Amino acid sequence: MDNMQIIGVDGGATKVSAWQIDYNPETESFSLSDRNREISYRDMAGFISDFKPASLPDQLAVYGQPQIPITEQETQMQKVYVETCVQCILGLADKKRDGLIAGIGMPGLKTADLRGIAVVANGPRMPQYVPLLEKRLAEEGVNLLAPLARLGSDADYCGIGENYAAEGQFRNFRNAYYLGGGTGVADALKLDGALLPLDKTKPWLAKTWEFKTEDGFSLEKYISVGGMQSLFAAGSGTTVEELNRSQIFPLQMAGMAAAGDAQAKTLFTRVSDQLARLIFERISTLYQGWSSAFEFVNPNRAHLETAHPFLGRVFEKIIIGQRLGDLLQSPEGQQELGQPTWEKLDELIRNSPLLDAAARHHYLPITGRLAYSRLREAPAIGAGIDGFLAFRERQASHA
């Protein structure tokens, strides 16, 4: 245990980012080291530049089958994605250690054994991802101390990072909500002192991306910084690619809004409305149960139940993380997005019949309940921690 190495891998839609994770056994806490390897899939041999994923209806039609049939292109891209991860891990693997433990986060719906990707919107299905990865690492002489337990999700790994990392904001609270905004949105919960993945709250609490706004978009489009960029592009008659080339991201848009740019101001007005509504929905659903605050992207989604095991609870902290947290902490982002959002949220809390006087007193002003994540690369550190916890659980079961 003292001479092992922990590596956390964030396998995103366009690249793999792997980090060495340091563990302090005295405090049982984790921190991100300065050792990192990052490789884009398109830089690897065999990458198919014009690859198009199978349609989601076709993917969902075979989801859950024991053997998921994939195309020849997906088979090739699975090898590319696996090899990208292998090379990142090899770049960090320390042969002087007794062996390594790895955890990996990937987008998409997982296979039944949690070791492959069965459904994914923007990439290849990879049902054999972990077995192929373990085989390649063994060929390269990498000593895994235990098989990879599972592929996790960004959202769950953000929650794990906040709960176990030395700088994690969940550590000192029994009831807290985490909202991370990057390319997409990550929701994480800690209730009654335990992490509660949103996959387990499905009957009474939905994920952010499941909510639909009045204009028909997923709420994720307003809360993620990637979505904000696409909204700005659509409103200003340009493309996301052109914005990227010009280095115009939400932080720069906030500066433009502060300087009087009408399009940027309109964007942040719309975003602040939706962000306030989302956080209020979390507050009110926890306290009183679902109140039909949003419609759903999937019209066939089962209705949320109004009763749940945590009624009457309040969040001690609401934590904002990833690039959304960076944006809100910047002077321009605080001025153009943060302050308007918190004012609208205070108003919703103050005037809501869903909250009694005690709950309103607890939350007002909402800025007293807000915190910003201090974790860099939250999904990667959460992945490494999950790998370590799974390894320790495996050891205990074999003791």
In N-to-C order, the SSE pattern is EEEHHEEEHEHEEEEHHHHHEEHHHEH
Q: Look at the structure and give the CATH class of the largest domain.
A: Alpha Beta
Q: Give average pLDDT, whole number.
A: 94
CATH superfamily of the largest domain: ATPase, nucleotide binding domain
- The proportion of residues in beta strands is 15-25%
Q: What is the CATH T-level topology of the largest domain?
A: Nucleotidyltransferase, domain 5
- Count helical runs: 13
Shape: globular
What is the terminal separation in angstroms?
Answer: 15 Å
Strand order of the largest sheet: 3-2-1-4-7
Unreliable runs, pLDDT <50, ≥5 residues?
A: none
The total domain count is 2
Return the structural class.
alpha/beta
Helix content: 40-55%
Specify the biggest β-sheet: 5 strands, mixed
- Count of distinct strands: 14
**Whole-angstrom Rg:** 21 Å
Named CATH architecture of the largest domain? 2-Layer Sandwich
Topology, pairings included?
Elements: E1 4-11, E2 15-24, E3 29-40, H1 56-62, H2 72-92, E4 99-105, E5 109-110, E6 117-119, H3 129-139, E7 151-152, H4 154-164, E8 176-181, E9 185-191, E10 194-195, E11 211-212, H5 220-223, H6 225-236, H7 240-245, H8 250-258, H9 262-288, E12 295-296, E13 317-321, H10 322-329, H11 331-351, H12 357-363, E14 370-372, H13 378-398
Parallel strand pairs: 1-4, 4-7, 8-13, 13-14
Antiparallel strand pairs: 1-2, 2-3, 5-6, 8-9, 9-10, 11-12
Helix pairs in contact: 2-3, 4-13, 6-9, 8-9, 8-11, 9-11, 10-11
